[in-house]
Task: structure prediction
Amino acid sequence: MNSEKVTKNLLFVASIILILLAAGMVLTLASGSIPVFEKFGIQFIWSNKWNPTAGREQYGALPFIAGTIITSVLALIICLPLAFSASLFIGEFYKGTFFAKIIGTMVDLLAGIPSIVYGLWGFYYLRPMIVKLGLNAQGFGVFTASIILAIMIIPYATSISTEIISLVPNHLKEAAYSLGATRMEVIWNVTVPAARSGIIASYILALGRALGETMAVTMLIGNDNHIPKSIFGIGNTMASVIANQFGEAEGSKLSALIAIGLLLFVITGLINAAGKFIIKKLA
Amino acid sequence: MEDQKVIVDKLSSKSKDARRKASNGIFHGLVILFSLITITPIILIILNLVEKGYRQINLHFFTQIAPDSWDAMQAISQGKLIPGGILNGITGTFMMVGMASIIAIPLGIMIGIFLYENGNKRYANFIRDITDILQGAPSIVLGLIAYLWVVKYITHGFSALAGAVSLAIMMLPLIIRPTEETFKMIPNTIKEAGVALGVPYHKIILKVMMPTGLSGLMTGILLALSRVIGETAPLMLTALGSQYVSFDITKPASAIPLLIWNFYNDPNLVNLIWSSSLSLVAMVLALNLISKRIASKRK
Amino acid sequence: MVNPVTEIKKPVLRIQNLHVSYDKNDKGKYAVANVSADIKKDQITAIMGPSGCGKSSLLRALNRMHELYPNIVTQGKIFLNDVDISKLSNIELRRKIGMVFQSPNPFPSMSIYENVVAGYKLNGIKQKKNQRDEIVEKSLKDVALWNEVKDALHKRGNFLSGGQQQRLCIARALAFQPDVILLDEPTSALDPVATSKIEDLLIKLKKNYSIVLVTHNMAQAARISDYSMFMYLGELVEYGKTKDMFTNPSDKRTEEYLMGKFG
Ligand SMILES: Nc1ncnc2c1ncn2[C@@H]1O[C@H](COP(=O)(O)OP(=O)(O)OP(=O)(O)O)[C@@H](O)[C@H]1O
Ligand SMILES: [Mg+2]
Result:
């Protein structure tokens, strides 16, 4: 074999390792989940009972699936007007100016703060505000976690949509202006429709981020293994239950946590695939 | 024809135009307001960290290991600064991130080059999809995986190696895509010049392509490092944490984010969370900044 | 036949001492320098000149398009039917002065139908469906596009040829019944057949509209315009009846340009 062949084969082997890694991850999670599915059946997914007491053990993932979806969707809703405004600020209103650069840099900085620091800040600064507002006696809960999550996903929701908005060609916007439209009318009727798929894709990817966030949520959601009673109630997400129950987990409980991990992996995978699909259609 | 003109004039009265102008102004105002709200948290977070954390930061903070609860309580009751620092976290973070880099950087670069070489082939697109899935995988799930693989079967207990494996899986996709992008940007002529001279293929990659794309690769690597350095959740399931400086990769190890978690859960040590968080954020932002510098120099 | 009458018509636009500069801080550098001219009503006025001489800059001053860009400064006065355009809201002004751009730019997110009535939608003018249908049909017939697209009205316009798209854009400008239509090299991206269709259309349209046309193509100006301006380095060098200018230019620079010496 000549050297070119050897190199190419080596690169090919590297790609095989990636496949093995991904396949291994899925298989490991799947086989780790088998005990809990054997014991409780497929109902594990939609059962809302979670009781680790020895002898009366019972596990169901529903409270965590519900908690995850509620917090993430709420976070996305809170994030939307903020991220959208920031995108318009950077990519349309003040495009290319010093102010846009400042806002853009600040938004990027948000992505650099570690999850645990968001958790601390949420615990010591945001939670007391929630208490003061009387939304919740201790300040823990879905709503608090969602606000922090919303802040954390802003950079993801902003990045692609800002870029796509700033790429909307000037000649389209000018066409609308030449018909007498105001800037707001141009944005809603020309810019946003032209950038629509990019905007949607970035919000979907941001949702994917929110679904898997662990530390900040764990520190704020209240860690209660029931379906949240309201958006101000306490609960748990799939990621946070793994984080705070893992330490003492063995047997069925460990298997239940692995199964929740598998479900989380699948859900985030699907959400991200949807986002990437839209982005690919754009290109 | 004329009636159409009348319609336009009638339906677009001056007062209506004024209303449209007003709502345009309000919209503009809202965009500014919401943009300012968007950047408020980052300003507050950094201010809060500095305000509460700067006092603990001194040389000892980086050269001594984390204090135990008892010593801290003594110091607090005497109104002194809590002794000790985060050395065990720093060494643990460097060890695990270093090991993760040793695994992920070469492998990631090789896969990135493979993708560049194979363009839009079906198999290459499949590899890209897998990379995307890995990139979207929640870090806690990667922690679970490393636990099931390494903690259970290799080190038979929580270990730095397990932590490194979880971080390596996380880094991998963050290296692969920038590598591919960087290589795509290198003009074909550079590669062809090498080929024309009969230089062996691996040498073209190592001696021609990599140096040309070095700044791109560095940007990707530094960003990947800045992402994993603050990870807590996967390390809780794998490295667990340790009170001492330990370089044994088969034993539990600490990391800065793990220390923050420990401090947070210990009422006597809780005052240390701010200075440790400040140091961690400073490290992450420094990595970010350097990578942006490199990236902007390239352009 | 129309000429003797139009001679006595009032100018639709009066431009007085117009300056346009792209650099707020360097006002000495003008893209348009001290241009004054009266644009005749219901005539085609061509603006010619070498690349970069300020044709587009002049044209875009007429509907205050420059306001979109904070760095651009315009000075001087422009009157539309004796009203100072700086006293009009830009909403109103742009309803009265339509614009067609160099490359066809129908809104990609809208159907052909929606494109024609885009001005109404953008301005929040609500109408009954039959009124809208009427406007769409009339405007498309005006630009001779009706027969070609009447079965595809609710499809997006991206399957149309460049020339058809450009006629759609003209229809979009016409749907609002403006007083003036500004066109910036509307045929430069089109082939000769599509170009001649647009030229025919413009000749037909001047019955009801005053047309200002920027063109690089001297033959085009000669074919369809009634009046011509020749600009050079931001200045209006010569302005008069097209016929006169082409047969007997009064400025040496105009003559050189027309003989193809530069441009
Ligand atoms: N956006 C801009 N920013 C800065 N300078 C500009 C801008 N647009 C035009 N200019 C400058 O203003 C002058 C006039 O430009 P303008 O576009 O009006 O010329 P033109 O006659 O339309 O040219 P062309 O035939 O190439 O379209 C030129 O010197 C040009 O470089
Ligand atoms: Mg021009």
